[in-house]
Write a structure and sequence with these properties.
This protein has two helices and no strands. With 50 residues, the chain is an all-alpha fold. The longest helix has 13 residues.
Length: 50
C-alpha cells in the first residue's frame, strides 16, 4: 500500500529501517453488534504485514 504516513506513523516509524511494536489506545462510542466488530477486526488483521 502506497500512501502518505500519518503524523503519528511518521513519529513511530522514523525511516522504516527498524521494526517496532506499540500499543495505541482508542475509544469508540455507540452501539456495535458482535458481527460488525468481528468483521472490522478481521479487516484490520488482514492489513497487517507479516
Amino acid at each position: 500500500m502506497k500512501r502518505r504516513l500519518l503524523f503519528g506513523e511518521r513519529m513511530l516509524l522514523g525511516d522504516g529501517s527498524e521494526p517496532f511494536n506499540t500499543v495505541i489506545p482508542f475509544r469508540l462510542k455507540g452501539t456495535f453488534s458482535l458481527k460488525d466488530i468481528q468483521h472490522a477486526l478481521e479487516k484490520f488483521r488482514r492489513n497487517i504485514p507479516g
